[in-house]
Design goal:
The chain is of the alpha+beta class. The chain has 5 helices and 6 strands, in the order αββααββαββα. The protein binds zinc ion (ZN) (2 copies).
Length: 146
């Protein structure tokens, strides 16, 4: 597993429409493995990808590093179970933020538990936050297909 971005698949992201994401969105570029993680702010909603629910904990983990960079601290992955038993996964910077989210959505009668958390927030000076240029995008997409 990459110490910086918590994945052992260095080209797994972006998952959906990778070319569109790489062309249009600002990426966090892992300084160890080179993985690009979308860090673009959705202006309308004021949220980034990591703020939204994920289908699995594994996918959420792919975005954990950008959550930490945005908040400047350790973040955790929380499993949220709806009253109908549906599971989703969300990243929160701490328990209080997670609980606030549940309170706001209490009509759905969620249950929640923290299932993964990093122990220490680390800064990686050589990591970059920027858009890729055309040749970098081409190279990355090729590597993704391997
Ligand atoms: Zn994106
Ligand atoms: Zn990495």
């Amino acid at each position: 597993m990459c110490n910086e971005c918590y994945s052992n698949q260095s080209r797994i992201t972006p998952i959906l429409e990778p070319e569109k994401c790489l062309r249009n969105h600002t990426q966090y570029i892992c300084s160890i493995c080179g993985r690009c993680i979308c860090i673009e702010m959705d202006e309308k909603r004021g949220l980034r990808r990591w703020n939204f629910p994920f289908k699995t904990a594994d996918i959420a983990k792919l975005y954990l590093r950008v959550a930490e960079v945005c908040t400047g601290k350790c973040c955790g992955i929380y499993e949220i179970i709806s009253d109908k038993g549906r599971k989703s996964y969300k990243i929160f910077e701490d328990k209080e933020t997670a609980e606030r989210y549940l309170t706001k959505n209490k009509n759905k009668q969620y249950r929640m538990q923290m299932i993964y958390q990093t122990e220490q927030y680390r800064e990686y000076k050589k990591s970059q936050i920027r858009k890729l240029d055309d040749s970098e995008i081409e190279k990355y997409l090729k590597e993704q297909q391997k």
